[in-house]
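Changelog-adjacent note: as of this version, every example in the card shows the full chain rather than a window. The one below runs 128 residues end to end.
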Amino acid sequence: MKKKILVVDDEKSICQLLENFLSQDYEFISFNTSSHGLDWLEENLPDLIICDIEMPEKDGYEFLSRVRQRGFTKHTPVIMLSAKAESKERIKCFRLGAQDYLIKPFNPEELEEVIKKNLFPIYFSIEW
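Full-length structure tokens:
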């Protein structure tokens, strides 16, 4: 059974790129607002979440905080994507509970490795 990845990003082109890149190996669901992503999480549990920071309504920080406050998603790995390259932004995400942070534009191969690291951590530790 394929692992399920939730993507929350207001840029439709990013969602389409990620769907093209991920849908062969993973079950893929995406939303263009954090509110829709949070609503979907009411009845679903992904194996991993990829989230943008800068979005209308609720930004990625608020989305991440709400994900961490929920019982079922408290330990779900979250990868943040952002055009913000400043260290303070990464630190803020890590303090809110993100496992990883990639800067847009991102390298798809790097994203693939970060996803594998978060979905299959024991596999990665065995490889070295």
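Structural remarks: The chain has one domain: 4-127.
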